[in-house]
Design a protein that fits this description.
By secondary structure, the chain is an alpha/beta fold. It folds into 2 domains: 211 residues, no CATH class; 322 residues, 3-Layer(aba) Sandwich (Alkaline Phosphatase, subunit A), CATH 3.40.720. Bound molecules: zinc ion.
């Protein structure tokens, strides 16, 4: 048997010098150790996922098959085997940390949609995120997770064997790894593209492919969306009629960010976080059962600003969007934003903004964690109001109450900064600080939204202004789970409940009479249907307009208010079932109207029953859940 040629690597690694003939011979057990090393980085993750019941066995199978791939270079270049394994190991270790970290935080498998959400948010946000979820046990866990493969790597011994043994084995491995594609293309006679997709699907549960494939798919989807959204040949809506075609109109849509309606005074929160809006509440329609469909900016707004919804999530690529509708109705469209636009990331919302005739990008900061207060929109908004254009549609996108909250308001809005009236479960210093900061950011946000309403009111223009937030935000709202942020896998009302207000000018009210009763403002509504409410308010009609999906229409129908990831339709759930499971049968006393005092044990809900909101859901009382009252 010819000895393996000696190289530098051999000389520097004495273990690799064949010491005796035993090491020359092919050894299956030594090969298994190599395999174990590569399998480790996906295997641990997939085994935890399988054994905790998060997902089935598919991930483990794929991890077993796809980890074979790394044996190929090792067997082709046995002399450099250990070096190759070391480099591959570092790459696998680093990429597996993403999925392991995600698993630790969210108890969920790392999926395609997670990658979308990561790439659509930014690193400043992610580091803030890591900071807030960090727990002490992660340090030893990371150390052990890293130590094990290092120990295995140190024990790697030459696999041995002649090329006569290693080459057929390598070929067999290649066959096994590429089988999903070969099966599609050669046996099932499918196209090469479909074969590639099948291969990608099979490799996805395995490091590092979940990141690589995820990124490739993300870029593909983004450029496809961009070309569809900005396509000039989009077919217009049939039979479009504008009832206000003969008057000059200014219609304004203000989109906030990460604001939970239940933390706003105007909705009954025990702290007065919205003094300005409350002062003008006679002039507003205040809808209090509106829910975002997704707890993430892009995912929620794509649905709110198009025909897409939870059941047909891709309609924004096929049908005109809200901006297209307004353009078709003869409006000149403007998009003012204080959200980041000038980074390397070009998110889908930036693409939506490019549909408008003019864009005013105000936030050129590289980091979202910088004080760029929303009042910067006042000047450009004023300028647009003054424009002599007869029909204007102005969309104002605010940074709102986005984390980190203390970057969202100047010191003059530091209203809540003591512990006096904090809920008793908000004890930790960091929690107390964040709880107060979030409320302060809402006070500032109240100032911004109210000022925009005052601006359009003073301008004397004929029109209206609608304000909603893209989704809510949980900031230590519940005693049974101390959590801040958003998590689609563990939804709460705080993450989905959004403010929804309408202001109308006197002339608009006269010319566009709508019958909005107290009961109307209590309707359950999904933000994903917003386009129908918007055109209904504007007096625009077309074939395909669904009055059942307009919150102000007499023909409004209580449809399901679905939340969850539409990529997993079986996981979609109605807000009513998820948050208020008892509403259908139980009539309750007005426990939610209690004054200050400790929460009696009997009233402390077991998740997912979030408070006693039954009366609110039946539409006879404003939404007040017990956590909004001072406990
Ligand atoms: Zn958002």
């Amino acid at each position: 048997m010819a000895p393996v040629p000696l190289t530098q690597v051999h000389l520097s690694e004495p273990h690799f010098r064949p010491e005796n003939t035993r090491q020359d011979r092919f050894s299956l057990s030594r090969l298994l150790v190599w395999f174990l090393f590569f399998f480790y980085f996906s295997g641990v993750h997939q085994t935890i996922i399988y054994s905790s019941g998060i997902a089935g066995f598919f991930g483990i199978t794929q991890a077993l098959v796809m980890s074979l791939l790394w044996l190929v270079p090792v067997m082709l270049f046995p002399a450099r085997g250990k070096l190759i394994a070391g480099i591959v190991g570092v790459v696998l270790w680093a990429t597996s940390l993403f999925s392991m970290g995600y698993l630790a935080l969210y108890r969920q498998d790392f999926s395609q949609s997670v990658i979308f959400i990561i790439f659509e948010s930014n690193w400043a946000e992610s580091s803030e995120f890591l900071h807030s979820y960090f727990a002490w046990w992660m340090v030893p866990a990371l150390a052990i997770y890293t130590l094990i493969p290092w120990l295995i790597w140190r024990r790697l011994q030459p696999i041995g064997g002649t090329p006569l043994i290693r080459l057929p084995l390598t070929l067999a491995i290649c066959l096994a790894v590429c089988w999903p594609m070969l099966d599609r293309v050669i046996i099932k006679k499918d196209s090469l593209a479909n074969g590639f997709h099948k291969q990608a699907d099979s490799m996805e549960p395995v490091a590092p492919w979940q990141l690589v494939m995820g990124y490739v798919k993300y870029r593909q989807a983004l450029s496809h969306a961009e070309s569809r959204l900005l396509a000039s040949d989009k077919p217009p809506l049939d039979g479009l009629v504008d009832n206000n075609a003969d008057t000059p109109n200014t219609l304004v849509l203000v989109i906030g960010e990460s604001t939970n309606a239940r933390r706003m005074g105007i909705y009954g929160y025990y702290r007065d976080t919205t003094p300005r809006l409350a002062a003008m509440s006679d002039e507003l329609l205040v809808f209090d059962q509106v829910y975002a469909s997704r707890p993430y900016t892009v995912e929620s707004l794509v649905q709110a600003l198009s025909f897409a919804d939870q059941l047909q999530p891709n309609l924004h690529l096929e049908k005109p969007t809200l901006i297209d509708v307004m353009k078709q109705a003869g409006y000149r469209t403007y998009w003012i934003t204080n959200q980041q636009t000038q980074t390397h990331r070009n998110t889908l919302i930036t693409t939506f903004s490019k549909q408008a005739d003019e864009q005013i990008y105000l936030n050129n900061n590289r980091s979202q964690n910088s004080a760029q207060y929303d009042e910067v929109v006042f000047g450009p908004f004023e300028d647009l109001l003054k424009k002599a254009e007869a029909k204007k549609f102005i969309l104002v996108h605010l940074i709102g109450t986005h984390r980190a909250y203390h970057y969202r308001y100047p010191d003059t809005f530091k209203i809540f900064d003591d512990d006096k009236d904090l809920p008793p479960w908000v004890r930790k210093k960091r929690h107390r600080r964040e709880y107060n900061e979030f409320d302060n950011s809402i006070v500032y946000h109240d100032f911004v939204v109210a000022s925009l309403i005052e601006q359009i009111n003073k301008s004397g223009q004929n029109g209206y202004l609608v304000y909603f937030a893209d989704h809510g935000e949980e900031v230590y709202d519940y005693p049974h789970r101390l959590f801040a942020g958003r998590d689609e896998a563990a939804p709460t009302p705080a993450m989905y409940s959004v403010p929804f207000l309408v202001w109308r000018s006197e002339s608009w009210k006269r010319n566009n009479r709508i019958d909005v009763s107290y009961e109307t403002t209590r309707r359950m509504y999904s933000l994903s249907d917003f386009l129908h409410t918007w055109v209904d308010l504007a007096g625009i009609r077309f074939i395909g307009f669904d009055p059942g999906k307009s919150i102000i229409s007499p023909q409004y129908t209580t449809g399901p208010v679905l939340i969850g990831d539409p990529a997993k339709p079986e996981a979609l759930v109605d807000v009513r079932q998820k948050f208020f499971p008892a509403t259908a049968t139980v009539a309750t006393p007005a426990t939610n109207m209690r004054g200050p005092g400790p929460v009696p044990k009997a009233l402390q809900p077991i998740p997912p029953a979030y408070g006693q909101e039954h009366r609110a859901v039946t539409g006879t009382a404003p939404v007040v859940d017990q956590w909004m009252r001072h406990p």
